[in-house]
Amino acid sequence: MFSPQGPSLRELCVQAFSSVERGYDLLAPKFDHTPFRTPEPILAATTQALSKLGPFRDGLDVCCGTGAGMPVLQRLCRGQITGIDFSAGMLAQARSAHPDATWVRADVRAMPFAGAFDLAVSFGALGHFLPAERPALFEGVYRALRPGGLFAFPIGASPPRTSVSHWATLGFDLAMRARNTVWRPPFVMYYRTSPLPAVHDDLTAAGFTPTTVDLTALGRHRGGDPRCRLVLARRPADS
Fold first, then answer.
1. Residue 178 resides in a domain
2. How far apart are CA 24 and CA 158, in angstroms?
3. What are the pLDDT digits (tens) for 136-179?
4. Domain for residue 167, yes or no?
5. Could you tell me the keywords of this UniProt record (predicted)?
6. Residues 141, 147, 153, CA angle at the centre, nearest 5°?
7. What pLDDT was estimated at residue 2?
8. 181: exposed, middle or buried (Cβ count in 10 Å: 0-12, 13-18, 19+)
9. Residue pLDDT, tens place only, 191-208
């Protein structure tokens, strides 16, 4: 499915009825041949925006998956770059692709770092956290950063109600809610549970000073709003 190298429909169904960790372990060898991998234009736009704020020393990719975000850190950071994820299968793929990076298997809701990084990035991971879990995630990233450090991640703008994207993401989230109501273990992946205002409030509560920049290279919706923004959450220098 998706491409000759991608997973079959049967493999996707098995993944969908597994836990998040087990599902990604199963999908890992073929993950980069699916649309779920962060697209290169998003990575490039993020790199361009952050290049104006660096250089940085040590970098962390939060929920790194197969390591798609590592080239971003490689271009921006002068020191050590590290990826953290709880899927052993995804980390195995990442380690194979980027052997010079450091890889840590852990739950990012209990981040095992303190004051170790100047830049943290994350791509496409927020949907795996329920709103009640975001504070632990953000507080962990805050602790992992040095004073003055930056946490950056792209976040898509809500598409217009008249768009296909609006109804597609709504339908997907409703299907996942139904699945998680009747099947255990749950597979947490939602597109509409991390609106920018709520994310902004949770970052502020964790101690960050959040702002956003429009990633205009990724286009705009018909009404003029950018399709994607980059959240920039700064840990205060005196914290």
1. no
2. 26
3. 999 999 999 999 999 999 998 877 777 888 888 888 889 889 98
4. no
5. Methyltransferase, Transferase
6. 40
7. 64
8. exposed
9. 888 999 999 999 999 999
State if pTM tops 0.85.
Answer: yes
Does 217 map to a domain? yes
Residue range(s) defining the domain that contains residue 100:
37-158+195-234
102-105: strand order across its sheet:
102-105, 81-85, 59-62, 117-122, 145-156, 228-234, 209-214
User: Distance between CA atoms of 43 and 58, rounded to whole angstroms?
Assistant: 18
What total number of domains does the chain contain?
1
Whether the ω angle into residue 185 lies within 30 degrees of 0, i.e. cis, is yes
Nearest Cα to Cα of residue 206 among 176, 184, 229, 236: 236
Measured in residues, the chain has a length of 239
Instruction: Give domain status of residue 6, yes or no.
Output: no
Q: What is the CATH number of the domain that holds 202?
A: 3.40.50.150
Residue 46's identity, in one-letter code, is T
Report the C-alpha gap between 86 and 108 in whole angstroms. 8
Could you give the count of Cα atoms lying within 13 Å of 13 in the half-sphere of its Cβ?
Answer: 3
Provide the token pair at 117: 């990084």
